[in-house]
Amino acid sequence: MNGDAREIRATGGCLCGGVRYEVRGPMRDVVVCHCSRCRRAHGHVAAYAACRTADLHLVEAGALRWYDDGDRRRGFCAGCGASLFWRASGRDTTSIAAGTIAPPTGLRTMAQIFVADAGDYYEPCGPGERHDAALPSG
Q1: DSSP state letter for 86
Q2: Do strands 10-13 and 20-23 pair parallel, antiparallel, or not at all (unpaired)?
Q3: Whether 112 contacts 75, CB under 8 Å
Q4: How sure is the predictor about 137, in pLDDT bands with cuts at 50, 70 and 90?
Q5: Whole-angstrom Cα distance, residue 35 to residue 132?
Q6: List of residues 6+ apart from 92 with CB closer than 8 A
Q7: Which residue ranges make up each domain of the chain?
Q8: Which CATH class for the 8-130 domain?
């Protein structure tokens, strides 16, 4: 794959710049997750876009660390602590924390999942179809 900037669909990274990435391919719109694992990892709900793992290119990865969270791995910055990615075992996609993607993203919120598990301190609100569990396609 060459470095032609026209191939880049999105760029982004963490707060301190210790992790920077490019996405060179299509991206799935954003899914907001209310599960307790995402809320603990982010301090509140999580919002993730996704791409094929092969389309995610790390430009700067010196501070990237991975945490094994059962059936998934969560990528975060060791410098600033930002949550950036998660990957489920057996899938060829990587989810990307939507807030780390540089605007304009061209993305929209398509769904909210695990709304039945939402914290007791807020009401799920905003756009997207509501689901009490994961999306049917995973």
Answers
A1: E
A2: antiparallel
A3: no
A4: low
A5: 10
A6: 52, 53, 54
A7: 8-130
A8: mainly beta
Question: Amino acid letter at 127?
Answer: P
Burial class (CB in 10 A: 0-12, 13-18, 19+), 100: buried
Residue type, 39: R
What pTM was computed for the model? 0.90
Query: 15, 25, 18: which is closest to 97 by C-alpha?
Result: 15
Which secondary-structure segment (H or E) carries 68?
strand 64-69
Copy the structure tokens of residue 59: 């430009």
Residue matched to tokens 């982010």: 42
Write the pLDDT tens digit of every residue in 106-126.
999 999 999 999 999 999 999
Strand partners, 10: 23
